[in-house]
Amino acid sequence: MGKTMTMVRTLPLIAVSLALAGCVSLSPKVPPQLLRLTPSAPAPANNGVVLGKGVAVAVSFPSAPVELSNNRVPVRIGSTEVAYVKDAQWIDSPAHLFRDLLAETITVRTGRPTLTPREAALTTGPRLGGRISEFGIDAGGHQASVVYDATLIRSGDQVETRRFTANAPVNGKVDEASAGAAINTAANDVATQVADWVGR
């Protein structure tokens, strides 16, 4: 009797576990290829530099809207609808990738080293932050669109703000390869504009 009761109570639990296993995935499917940003002019290797006071630029991770809070590539359709490019996925969040691109481009174009947010306390130099509001594909214009609202503190409490934008055409149909290449071009354009502004 005791064994029968145990079996009756256990079988429903096993059935529920098997049902859940069939419809729940604990890890998302990763596409065979992941996208990343590559600087148009990467910084060369060097023998190291001694940072003078106020020389280095601290570059923070930009904030981003909900549609950019994941690793997928958004496509804006009209003024109110957003879809995502099938099988297209960044290797990291757009905010992290764009921050690294900004830092690399600033170093190349200004000659000033850049620091990560964790290292920001080590410098009294300029501090760059901001927000990416667009970092994807505009379906209407068949082009990539990158918009970055920058905030720069050069010294003391003086704050400068400026919006930077760039577009790049999508070659062929919108897929993971064409979308990634177009966004990379537009992101490099914006990073160059920002670097020249910081280096004034």
UniProtKB/TrEMBL annotation:
PROSITE patterns per record: PROKAR_LIPOPROTEIN
User: What keywords are annotated for this sequence in UniProt?
Assistant: Lipoprotein
- Taking every annotated instance into account, which residue ranges of this chain make up the domain ABC-type transport auxiliary lipoprotein component? 41-195
Q: Does the keyword S-adenosyl-L-methionine apply?
A: no
Record's keyword annotation contains tRNA processing: no
Name of the protein in its database record: ABC-type transport auxiliary lipoprotein family protein
